[in-house]
């Protein structure tokens, strides 16, 4: 990958209370099903086999950039009870002055096994209901009060909402664990390590901390 961290994706500090989650960065996201229930499929022979709900989760993840055009997808995987994925926010002006059109230079390359599915307009019509709760101050405190539009929280909230809407006719008790986990990627080496971790997740399933 290009050396993003020398220019567009510089992370000035790890003090996340001073970080706006609408700013340009590479975000490693983990979302879990409620009670870590195996709703999305199963791992067989170190390969993930998606259920009907898993296919929905895959489809709507692929569609995120269609509704948030400043988002670039990179590696992601749907596991039996959770999702790992990398979202890259790539707005003009580092995202400090609102969303602009994404530049081609920020695009990541998903694993070859990931193929886009049918486009839907439903995800852009949903309200973001999920929040990523941070117990810090300043910008962190403002995030708790108001997620704002075009932030990681609003994007994941919209994604969770549309998957739930489409999953409930299949399995009425489907739900998500509250919130989600995020990590801001700080270096090329870390980015490579996270990509490899995502790619290897099905093969390492029985040793995964989410395995149950």
Describe the secondary structure blueprint for this structure.
Elements: E1 25-32, E2 41-44, E3 47-50, H1 52-62, H2 64-67, E4 71-78, E5 82-89, H3 139-145, H4 152-167, E6 181-184, H5 188-200
Antiparallel strand pairs: 1-5, 1-6, 2-3, 4-5
Helix pairs in contact: 1-4
CATH-defined superfamily:
Transposase IS200-like
Which spans of ≥5 residues are poorly predicted at pLDDT below 50?
11-15, 97-146
Overall SS class = alpha+beta
Strand content: 15-25%
Provide the domain count. 1
Helix content: 10-25%
Polypeptide structure, described:
- The chain has 212 residues and is an alpha+beta fold.
- The chain has a single domain (19-207), classed as Alpha-Beta Plaits (2-Layer Sandwich).
- It is built from five helices and six strands.
- A hairpin with a 2-residue loop joins strand 2 (41-44) and strand 3 (47-50).
- The protein is globular, with a radius of gyration of 17 Å.
- The relative contact order is 0.23.
- Residues 11-15 and 97-146 have low confidence and may be disordered.
Give the gist of this structure.
The protein has 212 residues and is an alpha+beta fold. Helix content is 24%, strand content 17%.
């Amino acid at each position: 990958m290009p050396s993003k961290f020398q220019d567009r994706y510089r992370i000035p500090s790890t003090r996340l209370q001073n970080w706006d989650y609408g700013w340009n960065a590479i975000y490693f996201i983990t979302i879990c099903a409620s009670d870590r229930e195996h709703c999305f499929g199963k791992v067989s022979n170190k390969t993930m086999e998606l259920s009907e709900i898993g296919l929905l989760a895959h489809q709507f993840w692929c569609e995120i950039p269609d509704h948030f055009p400043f988002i670039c997808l990179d590696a992601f995987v749907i596991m039996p009870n959770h999702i790992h994925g990398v979202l890259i926010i790539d707005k003009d002006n580092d995202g400090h002055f609102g969303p602009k059109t994404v530049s081609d230079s920020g695009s990541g390359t998903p694993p070859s096994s990931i193929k886009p599915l049918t486009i839907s307009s439903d995800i852009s019509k949903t309200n973001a209901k999920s929040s990523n709760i941070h117990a810090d101050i300043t910008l962190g405190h403002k995030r708790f009060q108001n997620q704002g539009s075009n932030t990681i929280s609003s994007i994941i909230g919209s994604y969770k909402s549309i998957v739930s809407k489409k999953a409930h006719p299949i399995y009425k008790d489907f739900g998500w664990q509250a919130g989600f986990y995020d990590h801001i990627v700080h270096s090329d080496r870390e980015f490579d390590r996270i990509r490899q971790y995502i790619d290897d997740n099905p093969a390492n399933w029985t040793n995964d901390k989410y395995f149950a």
